[in-house]
Design a protein that fits this description.
- It is a single chain.
- About 0% of the residues lie in helices and about 55% in strands.
- It has no helices and 13 strands.
- Strands 5, 6, 7, 10 and 11 form a five-stranded antiparallel sheet that branches.
- Strand 10 and strand 11 form a beta hairpin.
Length: about 130
């Protein structure tokens, strides 16, 4: 049985985690006629988290292009900014940003030694940054 709420019953989830997100259903029946079911989808929001095993590595040098990949998990989706030596990178003919799912890529079309440096990604949403 759920907790008593104003106008009926409710479910209270204590210590909500990301894994608590999903579809919840409530079925009402009084033994007369058909039962009725209602569904609600719960989205659990959380600040961005960069996948630990992805940090400080993952580069691919292919066809004179350097690709860096930052795997970020976040709800709602983050805004991602890339930096080289602590200076924000802007997209142009030699710098591209691509995103698919949790993968945020930086593609550099410059040749070494122009690409050498320290790169980082910053992910931010309404709940925080990483």
């Amino acid at each position: 049985p759920g907790a008593q709420c104003e106008g009926g019953y409710c479910v209270q989830i204590m210590g909500v985690r990301k894994s608590d997100g999903g579809v919840y259903q409530c079925t009402a029946s009084n033994g007369v006629g058909e039962s009725h079911t209602a569904s609600i989808y719960l989205t659990v929001q959380y600040k961005p988290r960069i996948q630990p095993d992805q940090a400080n590595k993952n580069y691919i040098l292919e066809n004179r292009e350097l690709t860096l990949d930052c795997r970020i998990h976040s709800e709602p989706a983050p805004t991602v900014v890339w930096y080289k030596d602590n200076r924000e990178l802007l997209q142009d003919q030699k710098i591209q940003f691509k995103q698919k799912g949790s993968s945020y890529k930086l593609i550099l079309k410059e040749r070494p030694p122009m690409v050498f440096g320290n790169y980082s990604c910053l992910a931010e949403n309404i709940l925080g940054e990483s």
